[in-house]
Amino acid sequence: MDQYGNAEQEGGGKVLPPVSFRWHDFVNLIKLAQPPKAMFVLAVILSLVDTLSGLIVPYLTKDVVDLMTAAQIEYRVLLWLGLAFLLQAVASGGSIYILSYIGHFTVAGLRRRLWKKVISLPVSYFDQHRTGETISRLTGDTAVIKELISQHLISFFSNAISIVGSVLILSYIDWQMTVILLMAIPLVFLLVRPMGKKIHAISKQLQDETARTSGFLTGVVSEIRLVKSYHAEEQEQQKGNTQIDNLFRYSLKEAKVYALLMPLMTLTLMGVLVVIVSYGGIRVASGGLSAGELVAFLLYLFMIAIPFGSLAAFYAALQKAMGATERIMAILAHDEEEQNEGDKRQVEQVNQPIRLKGVSFAYPQGKEVLHDIHLTIQPGSTTALVGPSGSGKTTMFALLERFYQPTKGRILLGDTPIDAYSLRSWRKQIGYVAQDSPIMAGTIRENLCYGMDRPVSQDELDAAARKAYAEEFIASLPKGYDTEVGERGIKLSGGQRQRIAIARAILHDPQILLLDEATSNLDSQSEIWVQKAILELMKGRTTIVIAHRLSTVVKADQIVVLEEGSVTGIGTHEELLASHALYRELANHQFLAHETPGADSLQP
Q: In 3D, which of 543, 508, 552, 529 has the Cα closest to residue 466?
C-alpha cells in the first residue's frame, strides 16, 4: 500500500481504488498549481471592502429614512451613501475579475501538472483506462475545482463576514428581533447538512458517468471508419444513447436534490422574514423602533439571507470538488513509469548480448502469457520471433521496451538488468517500427523529427526519406515535408505511413531494432527498396523481428518459435524445418519448404 492507500499490483502499475477525500488533499492540490498569492490577497482585500461597504449602506439608509420621516434632508448622509455604493461597485467588480483570473490560472497550472503526470504514467495504466475517461479528469474535474475557486471560495469568507457583521449591527439596533433571527440559523443548517451529503455522493457518480460517456464517445469517434465500414452506426448510436441516458438520470438526481434544497431554504428564510416584519411593525407602532431602524433591519436581513443562499451554493460546489479531487488525487498518486531517474545508470555499451533468463509475465488480473523464457540474442545478430497469434511475440516486445516489467525472471544487457538503466537512456537505443505504425497529427517533418532531442538538418531528412523510399512521394505532395498528414496520418496511405515510420527510425539511428513485420503494408513496387534500406540499417545492429511471413526471416541468425507463451524451438530456418513440427507446418502452409529465399528475406 502507498501513502494514499492504493493497492499495489504485480506486473505493472497499481489499481486505482477510490481515494477518501481529506480537506488537506484539496489544499495540497491547489498548492500544486501554485496560484498567485499576491493576487489572492488583493482579491480578499477587495472582497472585504465590498462586504464592509455593503454593511454601511443599510445603516446610512436608516438615517435617510428617519430624516425623510422628519421632513428633513441631510446632504452629507446622501453623499456618504453614494460613496458607499460607488466603493462597493468598484470593489465588487475588481474582486470578481481577480477571482476569475486566479481560478483560470490555478486550473491551468493544475492541468499542466496533471498532463505531466498522465504523460509519465506507465503503459499499463492506459491499458486499463479508456482515453476519454483520463481526458475527462484532465478537463472536466479540473473545471469543477476552477468553479469552486473563482466563484465560491473567497465569497464564502466575505459572506461569513457579511453575516457576522449584519448580526452584530442588528444586535445594536434591536437585540430582541435579532434573537428571533438567530433561532432560524440552526434550522437552516439542519436542512443543508443531509442535502450536502447527498450532493457529494451524486456528484461523484455523475463525474464517473461523465468520464465513462466521454471515454465511449472518444473511442467510437476515433474509430469512425471501422464503424462505417461495418454499418455499425445504428448499433453505436444505441450504445451512445444508453450512455447519454445514464448521464441524464444522474443529472436528474442532482437536480432533484437542488430542487428540494433551495425551496426549503427559501421557505425558511421567508418565514423568518414574515415573522420579523410582523413583529417589527408592532414595535414601530408601539414606538419601540423607528421606521428607519425597521428598514435597516430588513436590509440587513436580506444581507444575511443572500449570503446564506451563497453559502448553500458554496457547500454544493465543495461537495462536487470533493469528488473531483478524489479522482485527480488517484491519478497523481499513481506510480510514474520511471522514478528516481537520476539514480539509474546510462547505457554506454550496447554491443552486448541481450539475455532473457526465466522470464514470465502476466497482465494485471490476467493469466500468464509468457512462461519461463530463456533466450540469448547476440549483438549485431538478427533474431526472428514466429508463432501463432497470441503466442506472446508482441508481449516480448513490450517487455524489451520496458512498457511492463516481468513478473518473474530478468532481462539483461550483458550482465546488467535493463531496469538498472535510466528508462530514457535505454529507450534511446531502441528503434521500433510496428506493423501499423502510428503517425501523429501534424506535418511530415514533425513526424520524421518526432522525439529527436537535437535540431535535424534538411540533408538528414532527405537522406532518411531516400533510404526509406519516401523521398519521391513526399516531393509529390503540395507542401512537401510541411504537408499536414491529418489525425493519425489519415491523409496518407498505409504504405506511405509505414515509410514515414521507417524513415523516422533511420533518422534516430538506434542500436537495437524492433521490427513488427515492418514492410507488410508496402506495395510490391516499393517493398523491395524499403527492404534493402532496412537491411542497410540492420548492419552492425541487434535486430529482433516479429515475423508474420516466414519468407522475410529465413536468413535470420536464429528463429525463435513461440507457442502459447513458451519457447518450443530455436534454430535456423533449415534446422527448424528438419526438427520442429509447428514451424514445418507454418512453412508448408506458406509454400516455403520448396521456395528459394528472394531479395525480400532478412539477411544483413
A: 529
Among residues 238, 244, 240, 204, the alpha carbon closest in space to that of 219 is found at 240
CA distances (Å), origin 344, targets 12, 120, 340, 347, 426:
19, 17, 7, 10, 10
Cα separation of the two ends of the chain: 49
Scan for cell 499536414, then name that residue: 484
Tell me the three state secondary structure of residue 338: coil
Q: What would be the CATH architecture of the domain defined by 23-216+248-333?
A: Up-down Bundle (1.20)
Phi and psi torsions of 376, nearest 5°: -120, 130
pLDDT at residue 355, rounded to an integer:
93
d(CA 545, CA 498): 16
Express each pLDDT in 203-227 by its tens digit: 777 777 777 777 777 777 766 666 7
The DSSP result for 56-74, as a single string, is: HHHHHHHHHHHHHHTT---
Mean pLDDT value of segment 89-95: 80
DSSP string for 84-114: HHHHHHHHHHHHHHHHHHHHHHHHHHHHHHH
Contact 555, 595 (CB under 8 A): no
pLDDT band of residue 105 (cuts 50, 70, 90) is confident
Query: Cβ contacts of residue 45 below 8 Å, gap of 6+?
Result: none
**pLDDT at position 598:** 43
Query: Cα(597)–Cα(311) distance, rounded to whole angstroms?
Result: 79
The residues that are catalytic are: 517
Grid cell at residue 294: 425597521
Mean pLDDT along residues 116-126: 83
Closest CA to 434 of 406, 398, 467, 403: 398
More confident: 353 or 67: 353
For the record, the C-alpha cell of 25 comes out as 488533499
Residue 356's pLDDT is what? 94
Contacts of 159-164 with CB under 8 Å at 24 or more apart are 159/51, 159/307, 159/308, 159/310, 159/311, 159/314, 160/307, 160/311, 161/48, 161/51, 161/52, 162/51, 162/54, 162/55, 162/303, 162/304, 162/307, 163/303, 163/304, 163/307, 163/308
User: Which DSSP category does 512 fall into?
Assistant: E
Grid cell, residue 303, equals 444581507
SS3 595: coil
CA distance 467 to 56: 80
E runs forming strands in 204-350: none
Q: Rounded to the nearest 10 degrees, how much is the dihedral formed by the CA atoms of 421, 423, 433, 480?
A: -130
Strand 354-362 and strand 408-413: the pairing is antiparallel
Closest CA to 423 of 347, 512, 507, 353: 347
Q: Give the gyration radius of the chain's Cα atoms.
A: 35
Residue 268 has pLDDT above 80, yes or no: no
Instruction: Give the DSSP per-residue string, 523-545.
Output: -HHHHHHHHHHHHHHHTTSEEEE
